[in-house]
Amino acid sequence: MAAHRPFHLQPARQMLFDQRWPVGRAAEAIDVSPTHLTNCLYGRCPPSPEVRDRLPILLSARLTDLFTEAALAAPYHGPRGAYWLKRASAGASADTGADSDAK
User: What CATH topology corresponds to 11-78?
Assistant: First the structure.
């Protein structure tokens, strides 16, 4: 069964292909997870603020040329996967430990 794609394939995917950017390398270059960038490109989620800010610079293109109006109009709700929950939890633990060491 096909994945849910509320925004359909985004123009940024073709532009990455045309400029010979593998998705993984592009994600690394703009400092986002490859999974998130893939989800944005295939219309599974709206682009995050990081993707909105950095991908146009990487591709020397306007944001409106990379994503459809619907994808840009949709609110981004942040990461929700197990990886991100684990990472956020670890970050909170590390922050707590750093604060207690400083006291």
Answer: 434 Repressor (Amino-terminal Domain) (1.10.260)
Q: Exposed (0-12), middle (13-18) or buried (19+): which is 49, by Cβ within 10 Å? A: exposed
What φ, ψ does residue 93 adopt, rounded to 5°? -65, -45
Q: CB of 60 within 8 A of CB of 16?
A: no
Model confidence, pTM: 0.73
Cβ-Cβ contacts under 8 Å for 27 (sequence gap 6 or more): 33, 34, 36, 37, 38
pLDDT in tens, 46-90: 999 999 999 999 999 999 999 999 999 999 888 765 555 666 677
What residue type is assigned to position 93 of the chain?
S
